[in-house]
Structure formats: C-alpha cells, structure tokens
Write a structure and sequence with these properties.
This protein has 230 residues and is an alpha+beta fold. It has eight helices and four strands. Strands 1-2-4-3 form a four-stranded antiparallel sheet. Bound molecules: flavin mononucleotide. The site of flavin mononucleotide has 12 residues, from helix 4. Keywords: Oxidoreductase.
C-alpha cells in the first residue's frame, strides 16, 4: 500500500447525526483479535440487541435469508477452535514466514494476529455463526454469488458496527470454508443453508482504536471511465 488515508473531515454543513461520532465508528471498527477481553462475560441481550439492529441491512428482495447461530457452549467453541487451528494455522504460518522474508511488516502483523485468534479461539466468549438460506452450488454465477453473499454480508457489518458502538470487538472470519460440512453437522445447520462467516466477539480491552489503514479513496475511485481519477 503506497499511502494510507486519514479519515475524512466532514464537508457537510447539515447532517442528521453527530458526524464526528459516526465517522469515528465507521473508521475505527477493526478486526479485533489481540485486544479481546476473554475474561469478561458477554450478556446475550447485548448480542441480540446488535443482531436486532443488523436486520435493517439491505438484502435481496427483502427475503431476509440470514440465520444466526450464537455459539456460547464452551465444548462447541473448543471443537471449532481445534478445526480452525488445524486448517488455518499451517498455511498462515507459511504465509507469515514468507512475509517475514519479504520484509512485509504489515503482512507479518496480520498473520501473527490471525494465528493469535486461532490460539485463543476456544476462549472467545461468543462466536456468531452466520448462515444464509441457499448454496453457492445452486447458482455458481456472479449473479448467484451476489444475491447469496450480498444478502447477508451487509447485515454482518451492521452487526459489527453495533458491537463496536457498545464496547465489543469482533472479526469477520471465513476460515470455516475449510471445514464447513463439519461445522454444519456440529450445529445442526441444514444442507439447504450455507455458513458465510464466523464472528468471534468479546468486549475489548480499552475502547480506543486507530483508524484502519486504507488506501486513499482518490487512488481507487474513477469518474465516468476506468482510469479517470477524481
Ligand atoms: C471475506 C473476508 C474474509 C476474512 N477472513 C478472515 C479470517 O479467516 N480470519 C481472520 O482472522 N480475519 C479474516 N478477515 C478479516 C480481515 O483480515 C480484515 O478485515 C482486514 O485485515 C482489515 O483489518 P482492519 O479493519 O483491522 O484493518 C476476513 C475479512 C473478509 C472481508
């Protein structure tokens, strides 16, 4: 990444919300792995409150095909954690070594953080397993994938924002694709549904987070024609 964008300063003179707060929420909701408070209980009501906010997200035809399994059972969390480590840790460890060799400091931090999540997975108080009605195999086209995943990912991000606003951190994870059948079997998720991600969540240690490092919007935005920058 050549340069990192600072969060924008608002140019809006009229706004229905406190933009400083909203912009801080949007720019500092990070993938939280190392700063999860594993010893603090997460009341189910708080998680349900965040889910109740997430369902306002856009979704195709308003069919609301999302389904959520909140995994609180320590035995289930340990089983899933073991799968997570078995499938993800070896390739992630290899990637970490490659990134070290390349001098890719940001990549090294990312790999170490992902490995850390695997190591503590069993102790994360709640894992939201996010499902959607339908299978990619039913329509493996751009249209099919867009309808299937696009109908649930936006609700997941709303969920993560709602968690952050209440002092909880979470990470969008997809390593379960390496053991999705086993996961569905463990949790009784029907074959008609797909697991699209797992969201391990907990209260955070400290509430301040730096804005996420991202490319400046000018680098990635064109007007009217590909290649014509802002
Ligand atoms: C499609 C997708 C898959 C991801 N899979 C994983 C994963 O399996 N494990 C993990 O720890 N993080 C996963 N992440 C989180 C990303 O690593 C994270 O969003 C990215 O590094 C930016 O982090 P930041 O917002 O803290 O800067 C995934 C994110 C997305 C959108």
């Amino acid at each position: 990444m050549d340069s990192v964008a600072p969060p924008p300063a608002s140019t809006s003179s009229v706004a229905p919300f406190d933009l400083d707060t909203v912009d801080r929420l949007l720019s500092t909701t990070r993938a939280v792995r190392k700063r999860l408070d594993l010893d603090r209980e997460v009341p189910r009501e708080v998680v349900v409150e965040c889910l109740a906010l997430s369902v306002y997200a856009p979704n195709a035809s308003n069919a609301q095909r999302w389904r959520w399994v909140l995994v609180e059972d320590p035995t289930h969390r340990a089983t899933i954690g073991a799968w997570y480590r078995t499938h993800l840790s070896p390739p992630m460890q290899a990637l970490l070594e490659q990134r070290r060799a390349d001098g890719d400091d940001a990549g090294v931090r990312h790999s170490e953080s992902v490995l850390h999540l695997g190591a503590i997975f069993d102790r994360v108080p709640v894992v939201a397993v996010v499902c959607v009605e339908g299978r990619i195999e039913d329509d493996p086209t751009l249209n099919g994938a867009t309808w299937l995943l696009g109908s649930v990912y936006q609700a997941v991000w709303s969920f993560q924002l709602a968690l952050r606003s209440r002092g909880l951190g979470s990470t969008f994870t997809t390593a379960h694709v390496l053991f999705e059948a086993e996961l569905r079997s463990l949790l009784g998720i029907p074959e008609t549904h797909s697991v699209v991600c797992m969201i391990p969540l907990a209260y955070t240690r400290g509430m301040e987070f730096a804005p996420a490092p991202r490319r400046p919007v000018e680098d990635v935005t064109f007007v009217d024609h590909w290649g014509t920058h802002l």
